[in-house]
Amino acid sequence: MEKPVFLIGFMGSGKTTWGKKLANALSVPFIDLDHELVNKIGMSIPEYFQLHGEAKFRELEKEMLLEQENRVGILSTGGGTPCYFDNMDWLLSHGTVLYLKHSPKSLFNRLSNSDIQKRPALQGLQGEALLAFIESKLNERAIYYDRAHIVIDQINTSLEDLVALVK
Ligand code: S3P
User: Fold this and answer.
1) Which of 64, 74, 78, 118 is the most interior residue, by most CB within 10 Å?
2) CA-CA distance, 112 to 115, in Å (whole number)?
3) Where does substrate bind (predicted)?
4) What is the rounded CA–CA span in Å between residue 45 and residue 51?
5) Candidates 18, 51, 81, 119: which one to mutate for ligand 1, based on the most atoms within 8 Å of Cβ?
6) What is the value of ipTM here, to two decimals?
């Protein structure tokens, strides 16, 4: 593997879980951009959103992305990373971009079972309101996500398929 692989996709699409598995199978490092960010700011993402607002978070996220320039391995991004500034162009020109695509309903089921508190955008949302939010946000972000080099329908793709795709 000469170039990094960037995993992109909506919150709850499995970027971190699959990123770890993929890195392990390929014996390359795994880097979680959200994790790097939390280490840098010394607080959780919801805390940062509350203190400084989303616009500041997006700037910081972009800075973190630029710092990954010479990294090798599997890199998972935050759900919004490709959708701000020229981040998607940067990702496409610095590695292989893989989109873990899910339907809104599938994301809804996955997010309903996850720790919503960790995601500032989802706080206070559940049931119909959560599904409506996912539908509209995904609709807004699809123009970025769909530009990925490889689009994966995760439900019907095995780890072996993924490994073969990015090897
Ligand atoms: C966000 C997704 C989160 C995190 C932040 C904002 C988003 O990452 O970067 O809470 O706008 O979709 P995950 O996709 O890893 O949850």
Assistant:
1) 74
2) 8
3) 34, 58, 79, 141
4) 10
5) 119
6) 0.98
